[in-house]
Amino acid sequence: MGKIKRNLIIRLEGLPVDLRMVEVFDADKCDWIRIITNKLDLGPTTVSAVYKDRWGIETFFRMLKQNFKIKTFVGTSANAVMIQIWTA
């Protein structure tokens, strides 16, 4: 994604567990993004990469649901999703 600005272990009020906050620069938007995760064993660059990949997947499925009028996906396998898209 970009340059890591902060990599902190934090605790949010009301939560009894430690969390990691990674602040990373998004060159596409020219802005800093804060990512909060409970994955303390991953490095900040890995957290950033996972977030970027996940965001791409989320926007892809949102586009599918909007364009094909699919409310939910019935199956979870790749084959089940493809069948539902083809029938839509």
Short précis:
With 88 residues, this protein is α+β, with helices and mostly antiparallel strands. It has helices at residues 44-68, 78-87; strands at 4-10, 19-26, 31-37. It starts with a strand and ends with a helix.
What would your notes on this structure say?
It is a single chain. A hairpin with an 8-residue loop joins strand 1 and strand 2 (19-26). Strands 1-2-3 form a 3-stranded antiparallel beta sheet, covered by helices on one side. It contains 2 helices and 3 strands; from the N terminus they run E-E-E-H-H. 40% of the residues lie in helices and 25% in strands. The protein has helices at 44-68, 78-87, and strands at 4-10, 19-26, 31-37. The mean pLDDT is 88. It is α+β, with helices and mostly antiparallel strands and 88 residues long.
> Structural class given helices, strands, pairing?
alpha+beta
Please count the helical segments: 2
Strand percentage = 25-35%
Q: Which of globular, elongated, flat, extended, rod-shaped describes the shape?
A: elongated
Secondary structure tally: strands: 3
| Amino- and carboxy-terminal Cα gap | 34 Å
**Mean pLDDT across all amino acids:** 88
Strand order of the largest sheet: 1-2-3
Biggest sheet features? 3 strands, antiparallel
Query: Element order, helices and strands?
Result: EEEHH
Rg over C-alpha atoms, rounded to the nearest angstrom: 17 Å
